[in-house]
Design goal:
Radius of gyration: 24 Å
Number of strands: 10
Mean pLDDT: 85
Distance between the termini: 81 Å
Order of helices and strands: HHHEEEEEEHEEEE
Largest sheet: 8 strands, antiparallel
Structural class: alpha+beta
Helix content: 25-40%
Strand order of the largest sheet: 1-2-3-4-10-9-8-7
Strand content: 25-35%
Low-confidence stretches: 1-34
Length: 199
């Protein structure tokens, strides 16, 4: 008698769970836009306020000569990066390290790095079709931001701005934090000190 009661209780619970699962599935299929953004644990605002991108060993204001001297010591053995490529323009200097680029204006060299451009990893985001605008907005968590079609000012490092390019802009601790999205997913992240960089 006891065994049959236990079996009936187990059967009843199994049926209830099945119905609950089906009901949940219908709701999920009804509105895919309500899916929660991917979990993110990096304190983006905390890093950005200090002028930092945690995956990059230099922050805004870092000494230019020290960066030039020490950059290759941070590159993993076997990497495709063989040197820090320096491109001097009339007014500014770009130092390209493959997945990261550093910029400064010649007149502001003593103030160190003015711009960091991350093109592979930034704030625990990887570029290349995984994370979208909702993931960025959810992860940053600040209520004030601007989301619009990217301008030449936003994506100044691109030779040509694609039609399907947008930008999510934040002002954090006096710095400009911008997420550039192409085809709806993150393509690059820039952190800039606007006091020493003219777009």
């Amino acid at each position: 008698m006891k065994i049959s009661k236990i079996l009936s209780i187990i059967l009843t619970l199994t049926i209830c769970f099945c119905f609950a699962g089906c009901a949940g599935s219908e709701g999920d299929n009804a509105s895919l836009s309500s899916v929660e953004p991917l979990a993110h644990t990096v304190n983006i605002v905390g890093y950005a306020e200090k002028g930092e991108i945690p995956e990059i060993p230099y922050s805004l204001g870092h000494d230019i000569e020290d960066l030039k001297e020490t950059f290759m010591s941070h590159i993993d053995e076997g990497s495709e990066i063989v040197e820090l490529v320096i491109d001097e323009g009339e007014n500014d200097v770009w130092m390209n390290g493959g997945s990261m680029t550093f910029c400064y204006e010649k007149k502001n060299k003593e103030n160190g790095i003015s711009v960091i451009i991350a093109q592979e990893y930034a704030y625990d985001f990887s570029m290349g079709g995984v994370y979208d605008a909702d993931d960025v907005i959810h992860a940053v968590g600040l209520e004030e931001y601007e989301r619009a079609e990217a301008t030449k000012e936003d994506a100044f490092f691109l030779p040509v701005i694609p039609d399907n390019c947008e930008c999510i802009k934040y002002s954090v601790g006096g710095y400009d934090l911008r997420f550039i999205l192409i085809d709806g997913t993150i393509s690059a992240v820039t952190l800039t000190n606007p006091e020493y960089w003219e777009y």
